[in-house]
Amino acid sequence: MKLWTVKTAELVTDSYSVAGQPVYDVQFADDSRFLAVLRARAATGGKSVQRRIQVWDLDSQELVSETADTQALVSIGFDESGESIVAVGQTGRFSRYSTDDGTLQSQQLVGQRPYGEIARLTGRDAWCATTLGGQMFVMPSDGKEHRLMWTHANSFGYVACAADGSFAVVGGGDGTAKVLNTDATFRRDIYWRDGGVVRDVAFTRDSQALMMACEDGSVQSWNLTDGNTIETVSAVGKPAIALATNPMTGAVAVCGMMRELRVTDPASPTDTQATRLPFGGYSSVAYSDDGNMIAVGGRSGNVLLFAADDLSTPRFEYSRQGTAVTDVCFSVDSGFLTVAWDDRTIQMLSVESGDLTDELPPTEDTPLSLAYCPDGHCLVIGTQGGYLHFYSMETMKRVADLKAHSGLISSVTVFPDGRLMASGGQDGEIRIWDLATREIVTILSIAPQTSRYFGIAVSPDGKTVASAGVRGDVRVWRTLGN
Question: Which fold has domain 3-185?
Answer without folding.
Answer: Methylamine Dehydrogenase; Chain H (2.130.10)
